[in-house]
Amino acid sequence: MDSYQTLVIGAGPGGYVAAIRAAQLGQTVACVDRWIGAEGKSTLGGTCLNVGCIPSKALLDSSEQVHRAQHQFKAHGITVGEVTVDVPTMVARKDKIVKQLTGGIAGLFKKNKITRIEGSAELLGDGKVAITAHDGSQQTVSAENIIIATGSEPINIPVAKTDGDRIVDNSGALEFSEVPKRLGVIGAGVIGLELGSVWRRLGSEVTVLEALPDFLAAADDQIAKEAAKAIKSQGIDIRLGARVTGTKVSKKGVTVTYETAEGSEKAEFDRLIVAVGRRPNTGGLGAENAGLKLDERGFIEVNDQFLTSLPGVYAIGDVVAGPMLAHRASEDGVMVAELIAGEAGIHRDYRCVPWVIYTWPEIAWVGKTEQALRAEGVEYRAGSFPFAASGRARAMEEGQGFVKVLTEASSDRILGVHMIGPYVSEMISEAVVAMEFDASAEDLARTIHAHPTLSEALHEAALAVDKRALHI
């Protein structure tokens, strides 16, 4: 029986990072993963690299280039002929990027002497794990420490079962060979909006059906309103309070029945994307037999050091309650690897985890929303600054959106930062760093920002908290 100091189950952004960090700290490490890529071969990177974060951003970028060519080049004095879209080439580009990055992880495993095991893992207890390879062969390995990093999977709903053709999940939506004329999306969350944006820019008539009455309820109210206005202006039809009750697939497409406050309605689509959220992927781990405790929602129960109910067994990322985000999973993995190696692990502050939605304009935030502060009875101050007053944004023809800074009234400590605008995914990290160091709005206001840059909008929003913004 092969034995390791640390065995990681799952090679997504949580698992592979945990494996690398553990190896860097001198551990003998193995990582077992069952993911099969598009070419039918075992691949690393999990959902994020194969069918999530990376491929969706590749297609988002391609579709943004199309939109700019069609709608923005003229303002820059650039004239082009008819803009045509070659979907197979876009998808092939996306696949090439995925292959490069997953191959890069394989190279990092080799560099750090991590043993890669292909297959599914089942906990047997006492540090033993049964592994079933893709060809059905089995082996048992042992480890002093086990890190569960099996991630999450799309939630399926009985009234809209995916078939990989007419009705698809997020992975199927990345593989269309042509632009659907009419595209339906169930769910107005991050995945639904991003994928809807891709295909709308490429020419689809997109309708988003959201069961909840509010749009982007997790975001700051002002940000959500601005986002709804921006997305609707792009031609995406967002129907709130629309609970899907049934679907019927035919050779021509999909008929969707849904309930609203006005009664039952129907919509016809060529393709339908189901994007109603994700759930922890713990099936097949043998949790019940091994005594691994799960909560009522299926998440693995852990303490503040991510240790489960089983000695020497840890869990990180999407299988643990908290933000289902790739960057959160990676940092969980680093922390646990360092704890196992005897280093002083730092407790992760989920208050400072950034959120990003890669629509256009982009949406990003960290910390408390204004409505949350009101509900908690926290006295706060707010300052905001529009990108319409930003020289750099104007030069880019991207004046839509704003930045808002929220601070504690008594101390000026930053409690939340919310952004919607061009490339705010690249700006939010400054706010995260500020909050990690318990900075005040005054600290940001007195920090010199390069001119002209988009980040000046954050600087001005911090000034606006004290009603001394300079350019509005």
Written account of the structure:
With 472 residues, the chain is α/β, with parallel strands linked by helices. It contains 13 helices and 22 strands. The chain folds into three domains: 3-154 and 279-348, FAD/NAD(P)-binding domain; 158-276, FAD/NAD(P)-binding domain, CATH 3.50.50.60; 352-465, FAD/NAD-linked reductase, C-terminal dimerisation domain (Enolase-like, domain 1, 2-Layer Sandwich), CATH 3.30.390. Helix content is 31%, strand content 25%. Strands 1, 2, 3, 4, 5, 6 and 17 form a seven-stranded mixed β-sheet that branches. A five-stranded parallel β-sheet has the order 8-15-9-10-11, covered by helices on one side. The longest helix is centred in the first third of the chain and has 25 residues, at 87-111. It is globular, with a radius of gyration of 24 Å.
Question: Concise description?
Answer:
The chain is of the alpha/beta class. It is built from 13 helices and 22 strands.
* CATH level 3 topology of the largest domain: FAD/NAD(P)-binding domain
Number of helices: 13
pLDDT < 50 runs, ≥5 residues: none
Q: Please tally the β strands and state the result.
A: 22
Look at the structure and name the CATH superfamily of the largest domain.
Answer: FAD/NAD(P)-binding domain
- Domain unit count: 3
